[in-house]
Amino acid sequence: MAGAKDKILKWLSLKTLPGECLTLAVGAFGGLLFVFFHIPGGSMSGSVVAVALTTTFAKPTQLGGPLRVLALSTMGMAIGSVVGPETFSNMAAYPGTMALMALCVVCMTLASTLVWSWLMGWPPAMALLSSVPGSMSYIVSVSMSLGADAAKVAVVQMSRVIFLVTVLPFIVVWESGGHLGVISHAHADTLHVLMPTLAVGIAVGALFTWLGMGGGMLFGSLVASGVIHYLGYGEGRVPGWVLDGGQILLGSWVGTRFIGFDWRLFGKICIGTTASVGAAMGVSVVFAMVVSTFFGVSFGTSLMAYAPGGQDAMMVLALSLGVDPIFVSAHHLARYFLINLTLPFIVARMLRERAAEKSGEAA
């Protein structure tokens, strides 16, 4: 009991608040700079890039539990606020598009694995682990037991985040000709709607997290906000300043994940990283075109839904770029479950094969 209490008190500690505020200041500068130059999804991508680059010469303070919860619940509330009867117009396509998404994940992983195997000459296990679009923590934790270089695997997995948040918005805007919906310009909810919605979202998010759902706080607050808005208790969207603030919070947190990132190693394997991520994105583009052609879902929405990883960032960027964030969220959640249900079986087989190889060598 005492241990749990100490853990909660540590989680709520304000000792690191000055450092966290400095991190947020860096993120806000980057986000506002990107917005000033009209870079698509600038609030999010700018804060990620600014904080990530800061890690090359300093060690920004990681955001504590309360600010992380605020970031995720705010963005979940923002995404959920778009829900209305018309939001589910694409739902009839979900079975088909999710089946294609599963195939897309397999093809993306294979394409990226071939790049690492053929171009860089990496061992099969290391090439595969570097190519799976998601579950980075699990992948890095098992990489060493499979004889893979955990540092290189982690660098490749993290590099994908920077690529997605900086390049993908330009692809979406270019394909659409710059004509994107701007959700934050719709009628805004007032504070007496926002505050209860945020509170309920945090409660539902905490429940989802306790149940072990990946991204539970984000999805929980999304569901709570979606229900509230669908039932008509909230009739607008989150104000623009809330949307931008949430993106900066989330982007700053994502940026701090690059603390300890080996930039020198990134430089050494930059060609392979670029080629592998490019191969995965190429597959995503092909599948997005198929979905757009045969299921009537916009290309931008399809591409964000089929992007290789970064579910929280993709959901937020979908909202800021004006594409259907509910469709994107549903498909990234499905991808998360697909990878986490199948990857342990693949890893277990690879471990058995590695053990058999060692036994053969010993004999």
Characteristics:
mainly alpha; 363 residues
Give a nutshell description of this structure:
The protein is mostly helical. It has 16 helices and no strands. About 2% of the residues have low confidence.
Describe the overall structure.
The chain has 363 residues and is mainly α. The protein has 16 helices and no strands. It has helices at residues 2-11, 17-36, 42-54, 65-80, 94-119, 124-131, 136-143, 150-176, 191-210, 216-230, 240-256, 263-268, 270-295, 299-306, 311-321, 325-362. The longest helix has 38 residues, at 325-362. The protein is globular, with a radius of gyration of 21 Å. The chain starts with a helix and ends with a helix. The model is unreliable at 179-185 (pLDDT under 50).
Describe the SSE topology.
Layout: H1 2-11, H2 17-36, H3 42-54, H4 65-80, H5 94-119, H6 124-131, H7 136-143, H8 150-176, H9 191-210, H10 216-230, H11 240-256, H12 263-268, H13 270-295, H14 299-306, H15 311-321, H16 325-362
Helix pairs in contact: 2-3, 2-11, 3-11, 4-9, 4-10, 4-11, 4-15, 5-6, 5-13, 5-16, 6-8, 7-8, 8-14, 8-15, 9-10, 13-14, 14-15, 14-16, 15-16
Question: What radius of gyration results from the CA coordinates?
Answer: 21 Å
Please outline the major beta sheet.
Answer: none
Helix content: over 70%
> What is the 3D shape?
globular
Structural class: mainly alpha
Q: How many structural units, i.e. domains? A: 1
Mean residue pLDDT: 84
How many helices does DSSP assign? Answer: 16
Terminus-to-terminus distance: 51 Å
Name the assembly state: single chain
